[in-house]
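PT: before anyone asks, these are the final sequences, not the draft ones from last week. 425 residues across everything. Please model them as a single complex and drop the result in this thread when it's through.
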Amino acid sequence: MKKVILKVIMVFTLTTMIYSCYPGGNNDIEDLDTATTVYKPADFSPAPKSAMMVWNVAQLRSEDHDDIPYHGEIDDEILNTTLDNLVDLYGAENVYIFSLTETPIPEPNNSQVTIITPNDFLPDFDAGIIASIVLRQKTDVGWVWPPYPWWGCYYCWYTPVPYIVDYEVGSVLVSLMDHRKNGTDLEPSWLAVTRGIPSGSTSFDGDRTASGINQAFEQSPYLN
Amino acid sequence: MKKIYLTALLLIGLIVSGNAQSYWAINWDISTGLGDTGNFVEGINFRGVSIDGRGFVNENLSIGGFFSWNTLYDKKSDMEPFEFGGDDYKGNISGTQSNYLNVFPVLITGHYFFDTGSDTRPYFGIGLGTVYTEQRTDFGMLSFYDDSWGFGAQPEFGVYLPLGLSGGGLNLALRYLYGSSAGDLDSLSMLTFAIGFGFMN
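LR: through. Structure below.
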């Protein structure tokens, strides 16, 4: 009888000790996502009242051809989520989309905003917005050259990434430049970085990125 | 970890082996943090095990050793964004925070067993010794880890309910564990309900 009891004790002990093991598998991949925003307080007094966003997601690639494959799968989520937040901030009448081409014309979810093409007259606006996605496996050099067409040249000045020198692949950046300074300050006034590990599912990653962008705007009440 | 476990077993064995009558209990521990510990890991945690060995010095009084391993875990996804920055720039970061606490008390115990006129033996007692604590916070893809050894005290009351298995029965106990602040870690405060197998001989 005692042997039976001892066996019961051993089984019980082993079972409970195994169950007690360090919980490391409780996290879902989206639990690793973060939304970081960095801003210059001086640039938001007063805050911008209008914005123009480039309808293009700049792809931050390396020259060693070691990038993750990406063909714009989540561009729509990035652009439309950013646009929706800008419209919430400044109103549809004060938000413009800059199309890099005459055709095709962008088709945003919000059809109330004005679309500007390269041949159109540029309206006055306070803030310039551009989104980027990091495709490099290793990003410890921060200079990238996104297009800011309204300054009259593409690749004419450097990227809004001076603060953080190491981005995980798959990170999405949204930067806001203060256009009221007429190019005298080349650093972004606001930078949002959504970080996370790509899951392999385009729709899931798109949802996570949209959620990160929404959170970035939500935690930045000074934008308006 | 292995050293702690072996030391605890050795301690319990040494204390109990010289006594004619002894009581052993192996329990499943269900714990919750209190105070600052409860703020760090909220809710009830079901990952825990304890081993308790006692040798009787007379019919009612026992001394012994106690060892347990309790893991407390909490995921916080609705926290306010953290602020950072300096004069020229400021920032916020938000995300899900996962907090882990592994607690290993190694205690010398003293217990008083009440006479009830039957084999059922309610008891109360206290354990004194040391508590090893591992604390980890995961935030995004960052992880912050710290550990410490602190002083531990654990009052307890419980009951041994025989089940007619040749000295075997059910052990039920309620414990409060206090661990002093040590290193970079705050003091520990934890309430545990234990249910397990008790063996009286």
